[in-house]
Amino acid sequence: MAEQKKVRIIVERQDGPKEKPYNQEFEIDYRPGLNIVAALMEIQKNPVTVDGKKVPPVTWECNCLEKVCGACMMVINGKARQACCTLVDTLKQPIHLQPARTFPVIRDLLIDRSVMFESLKRIHGWVEVDGTWEVKDAPIQNPYTAQTAYEISHCMTCGCCLEACPNVGPQSDFIGPAPTVQAYLFNLHPLGKFDAPKRLNALMEKGGITSCGNSQNCVEACPKNIKLTTYLAQLNRDVNKQALKNIFNH
Amino acid sequence: MAKKPENKIIVVGGGLSGLMATLKICEGGGKVDLFSYCPVKRSHSLCAQGGINACMDTKGEHDSIYEHFDDTVYGGDFLADQLAVKGMVEAAPKLIKMFDRMGVPFTRTAEGVLDLRNFGGQKNKRTVFAGSTTGQQLLYALDEQVRRWEVKGGVKKYEFWEFIKIIKNKEGICRGIVAQNMNSNEIVSFPADVVILATGGPGQVYGRCTASTICNGSAVSAVYQQGAELGNPEFLQIHPTAIPGSDKNRLMSEACRGEGGRVWVYRKNPQTGEKERWYFLEDMYPAYGNLVPRDVASRAIYKVVVHMGLGMHNPNRVYLDLSHIPADYLERKLGGILEMYSDFMGQDPRKVPMEIFPSIHYSMGGIWVDREHHTNIPGLLASGECDYQYHGANRLGANSLLSATYSGTISGPESLRLARSGKLGSALTAEELEAARQECVAEFDKIRNMNGTENAHKLHHELGDIMYKYVSIERDNNGLKECVKELKEILKRWDNIGVTDHGTWANQEAMFVRQLRNMIIYAMAITQSALQRDESRGAHAKIVLKSDYDKMDDQLKEALTKKYGKFHFDAETGRGTTDDGNDDLVFFERNDKKFMRTTIVTFDQEKEEPVVSYREFEHSLIKPRLRNYAVAKKE
């Protein structure tokens, strides 16, 4: 019988927000199609390190395991991505798992991304409808514009682009590519565009679009292939136009 | 003038139903404390792919609301409350317009109106969609509107908080909950006027399923153990087309078949003996073909693979084929999920057929509610997948996003009405709140100090294996009896779990152990109700054993002979098997006289066992008729 192939995984662990990180190495059985979440689940079933030490199972966040919820983002072999759709077969071993340190670490690979949801408030990330009750027929929309909206609306607030962006971090107030580009989404909608000036003005403020250094890392990192840099550039133009309007209308 | 007292509603769960209820409560002037395992934007509703049903009639097919009504009731094998269904299908087109105004990027026609696609169990194009990520787009729209209310002060979110149990006042009315912060592990009591549970389905009871890891039914099981009645828990939907995986079975939307996908296996042609592709759904069900409802398709795949041994390549797979459809069309209509298939399977479904197999997907059953979504516990409402309403014995594809949203539009306003009715009894005292909290603290402390030999995650895996073995596509009473026994054993073994993490900071292991016990107890309710329902209806298909047959009256026996011809009972399994050379299994017929009733399950506190009874429901609008998808529907 062929020997069971093994997978070696080194997890950067941290017991709490203020504790020091440390590494632990695990070994699990290989099987075809194995992804990182499935590998972490195997560790849960037998949380023993390669040194034979029984340890608390690794803490991380995951929900859908289909690359739509955005929960399981972590740094895998140095790159921020979704753990659920990262297959072991595509990775060099030993596999290094680290938390995305752009965000505060809660424990092990579990991080606090609430700042991203807060930023969505700042950019006025919604369509100002009168209410959920029946008002009238919704307006007809250009199917091509709707297609663009559909692409941007895939953003699952995972934070890969923030982790990859050199301008997001303690040195800057930049809210990051994902929440910024959401402003573009709402400005596309026939009712949403009524509040476009509000969103553009919000992006003129500190941490807004002027903090983007155009490093282009975000578009590479986006697991949903959203053309982030294209929309950032469009927004930049829109913000400048709005700034001129602000001057001449006063 | 004195300020009116503020009405506080607790909503547990931030999927479509919870968010919809939250919006309605805010619009009605109430305040919401919204609890969720995760940021609500990551709730499981976003896994819905194919679309949402509503009679928009924009394809020149003369679709009607009545037709949607009839398809839903017929598809549910006449076990759904018909007045509730009627309300839902009538509201559907209005809800679509609401979503459209909120900015959901629905797929549109050249003229800019909402496109529609075909879905299972419906002959007309009635499914509105946003590519193949409709759930994600609908959830985001409501998430955005709730965020707006959060800014306005109507909503306070408690994300990463786990619901533990409800708190009743001395009149027995639910007036609050105990919940735990999943990071700090702090346990807190929260008082409210009314509580709405919108906590989704129990897929994780089966381990590997299409549900998210958070869909464990733990909250439902907790309130069931506190006296809430369950309705129809034996009806679990098995989705015919999922990608089997060791961590989860990933859904391959019914939209694949709605857009022209075909299901097939290789076989030897019975006449010529040559190897050919057998499009067995088209062959068995000429009228609906690949678009038969999910229970029918799953049984057919199971039969072809397990009983006829025609699954190929991998033993338990059939092909779902899109490769004959132009790639640019597929990209526009199904892009998201095709990408998912490539990501996980490493093959391009635009070029090669996908390999799929049925998987546990959705629970038609859940907490029993009336048409206003009250449970039998006053002050506690339930909506969304966690309730039992709207789908009867089988849910039609694309009706779940609809029922989730619609039920929120009912439970939300109804909770406010109740809050203002003056019928809430006394508010919880500080002592009552503290006592409930203390109980949960003691339980958690006990769990995190468990020192046995069982690993909770392994035990969960075993639970899933047992449930798949005995309570899935085909059930029989011997298996179900065995399952009851084995579940009792699993529950006993739960006491012998050992945890490695004894801490109180983000202790996911201890929280999982608590959920696991709830899952086992819910599994017992599913199994017991399946055991007692001696008929086949929708997703519940039961094989006739010799011992069952001997107990039948002549009328039931004759019905079987009429349908199956001559049959015998297999010496080894005792299962009824036809004599016509096909060795087809003999199933119970639907028995309206005895079982056109809602299963009600209550929890016996002392024995820790489910108690099953039956309740009449409203089915006066459409007369029951036999379900047969081989021919076009007759009304």
TrEMBL record, chain A:
Keyword NAD in annotation? no
Do the record's keywords include Transport?
no
Q: Which PROSITE patterns match?
A: 4FE4S_FER_1, 4FE4S_FER_2
Q: State the Gene Ontology terms under molecular function.
A: 2 iron, 2 sulfur cluster binding; 3 iron, 4 sulfur cluster binding; 4 iron, 4 sulfur cluster binding; electron transfer activity; metal ion binding; succinate dehydrogenase (quinone) activity
Q: Which Pfam families does the entry link to?
A: Fer2_3, Fer4_8
The prosthetic group or cofactor this protein requires is: [3Fe-4S] cluster; [4Fe-4S] cluster; [2Fe-2S] cluster
The alphabetized list of GO BP terms reads: respiratory electron transport chain; tricarboxylic acid cycle
> Which keywords, in A-to-Z order, does the entry hold?
2Fe-2S, 3Fe-4S, 4Fe-4S, Iron, Iron-sulfur, Metal-binding, Oxidoreductase, Tricarboxylic acid cycle
Outline the extent of the 4Fe-4S ferredoxin-type domain. 146-175
**Mind telling me which SUPFAM superfamilies this protein's record contains?**
2Fe-2S ferredoxin-like, alpha-helical ferredoxin
| E.C. number | 1.3.5.1
InterPro entries the UniProt entry points to = 2Fe-2S_ferredoxin-like_sf, 4Fe4S_Fe-S-bd, 4Fe4S_Fe_S_CS, Beta-grasp_dom_sf, Helical_ferredxn, SDH/FRD_Iron-Sulfur, Succ_DH/fum_Rdtase_Fe-S, Succ_DH/fum_Rdtase_N
Enzyme class, UniProt record, top EC level? oxidoreductase
Q: Which family does it belong to?
A: Belongs to the succinate dehydrogenase/fumarate reductase iron-sulfur protein family.
Name listed for the protein in its UniProt record: succinate dehydrogenase
Q: Which organism is it from?
A: Mitsuokella multacida DSM 20544
Taxonomic lineage is: Bacteria, Bacillati, Bacillota, Negativicutes, Selenomonadales
From TrEMBL, chain B:
Q: Which PROSITE patterns match?
A: FRD_SDH_FAD_BINDING
The coenzyme or cofactor needed here is: FAD
Give GO MF terms, alphabetically: electron transfer activity; flavin adenine dinucleotide binding; steroid dehydrogenase activity, acting on the CH-CH group of donors; succinate dehydrogenase (quinone) activity
EC number annotated for this UniProt entry: 1.3.5.1
Q: Which UniProt keywords apply?
A: Cell membrane, Electron transport, FAD, Flavoprotein, Membrane, Oxidoreductase, Transport
- Localization per record: Cell membrane
Catalytic positions? 294
**How does the UniProt record describe the way this protein sits in the membrane?**
Peripheral membrane protein
Domain FAD-dependent oxidoreductase 2 FAD-binding: from-to ranges:
9-401
What protein family does this chain belong to?
Belongs to the FAD-dependent oxidoreductase 2 family. FRD/SDH subfamily.
Q: What is this protein called?
A: succinate dehydrogenase
Q: Which organism is it from?
A: Mitsuokella jalaludinii
